[in-house]
Specification:
This protein is mostly helical. The chain is built from 7 helices and no strands.
Length: 102
């Protein structure tokens, strides 16, 4: 059931209808609705299809980052996509901001 709730949360956050996600994931809206309601137990290939449709990693749907906000997840993805020197600069800035907050 937790997996289905996460799929629904991410689908709604992305502004997708069941039909929209179904088209992206190459699944039927009824099947996705069943997954979201915890009535279907998706296969690994279905988890991967849903993740692709939602533009997230399968691990994200399985709870890999459930303690992080959507903004933190986005920041992490952006962080991973930049050069190491830019990562160090961003970390330095975040550390300075965190120190001032205390």
């Amino acid at each position: 059931m937790e997996f289905g709730r996460e799929v629904r949360r991410r689908r709604e956050a992305a502004g997708l209808t069941l039909e929209g996600l179904a088209e992206r994931a190459d699944l039927t809206p009824n099947y996705i609705g069943g997954v979201e309601m915890g009535k279907r137990d998706p296969s690994l290939s279905t988890v991967i299809s849903l993740a692709k449709g939602l533009k997230v990693s399968p691990g994200d749907l399985l709870g890999g980052v459930k303690d992080l906000s959507p903004a933190a997840v986005e920041a992490g993805r952006l962080f991973e996509s930049v050069a190491p020197d830019a990562q160090e600069a961003v970390l330095g800035l975040l550390r300075a901001v965190a120190r001032k907050k205390r």
